[in-house]
Design goal:
Strand content: under 5%
Structural class: mainly alpha
Order of helices and strands: HHHH
Low-confidence stretches: none
Distance between the termini: 14 Å
Largest sheet: none
Radius of gyration: 12 Å
Number of helices: 4
Mean pLDDT: 95
């Protein structure tokens, strides 16, 4: 894993944990926000907005169904940012 990938993943995880009000060690790459961490659709929108601001990208809300865990969020942000 490149340092940049680790840094971006950590940044995404930080945003997600902050919005979901959970500890970073509670979240894995594949733990599901809704099922494992009780996130609702409003939180998902908050995460999307925070990611757009952090990474200066625009993410279509139609991508929300893919953003179910850290892995999915990373893929969506990476596509939007052209990483």
């Amino acid at each position: 894993m490149s340092a940049q990938l680790v840094e971006r993943t950590e940044s995404i995880k930080e945003i997600v944990c902050d919005i979901l009000e959970i500890e970073e060690d509670e979240v894995t790459q594949t733990s599901l926000f809704k099922e494992d961490h009780n996130a609702d659709s409003l939180r998902a929108i908050e995460i999307l907005a925070a990611l757009e601001k952090q990474f200066s990208v625009v993410i279509n809300q139609s991508e929300l169904p893919r953003m179910v865990n850290i892995e999915g969020v990373y893929q969506v942000v990476a596509e939007a940012a052209g990483w």
